[in-house]
# Entry
Amino acid sequence: MTDQARDPEARPRVLSGIQPTADSFHLGNYLGALRNWVAMQRDYETFYTIVDLHAITVPQDPEVLAANTRVSFAQTLAAGVDPERSAVFVQSHVPEHTQLAWVLMCLTGFGEASRMTQFKDKAGKSGTANASVGLFTYPILQAADILLYQATKVPVGADQRQHLELTRDLAGRFNSRFGDTFVVPEPHVLADAAKVLDLSDPTAKMSKSTPAGCVFLLEEPKRITKKIKSAVTDSEAVIRYDPQRQPGVANLLEILSALQGEAIDDLVEGYSGVLYGTLKGDVAEAVVAFAEPFAQRTREYLEDPAELDRLMAVGAQKARAVAADTLQTVYRRIGFVPAG
Ligand code: TRP
# Structure
């Protein structure tokens, strides 16, 4: 790192992103990702982005995309990401993401990109032949997101491991071909404990594609309570933490433990001889106690669109200051003639 050399006193950088593809985040987004985003603000220089460029790799209705981007941004702040401490921004507001992505695409082998397994999963039933080329190059855009900020750590779920490996490979390749330019990021795969499972099918991860088992943070408290009270458990009738044999109960205990900051073992002890209904009631109460004020804060941001726009602009400006610097070095190193 020559031009990019940073003050050794500076906090190491973190970047993460979330897609604006739902009208509400769900409990898994919060406990699995956002909560860590908030916590990392203390020790790192944090960059958090709402990845609308990634969202259009599959068809999006323009109005819905715009609304989801705003609500995602508002919820990120409502979760406790502080726009003063972090750069919170919308990906398309920082054109350097697309610009670096192109350069990286030209350094990625077709075979290498073809090995990304999420492409096949996301292409879904209609198959890879009908998927967009953007969906195919999605991981390369993600690499650009990360490398632009010289991020040392990238907090992501286990499903993003392969994309991070690609990012590391591309960083290393660029550095060896054109000289040290990028920090090679460390994956910071979030603990399994933060993996929230589907309430109606505790063998699957909580996902918006199965709404019956998914707690949306902006939905009515009554519906949240109903979903939790109908969570699938088992017929053992004993509250134990055994994710293999009793995944439904283990999931409820994990949610409660995460929200209340109490160790699972202590919770289990307190529930000896207690029925599942009581545990479910407690989980519902804890989730609603978080979700209700969270939804209220989100609404407050959304009700003041001018302020939301201002915060987006502030975030984009902070991000651009760093991104433009990296891109300039990249362009020079690969032999692009300066515009003057
Ligand atoms: N692909 C990530 C996901 O689906 C979202 C994402 C886009 C991201 N760019 C990123 C995550 C950069 C971490 C860093 O969750």
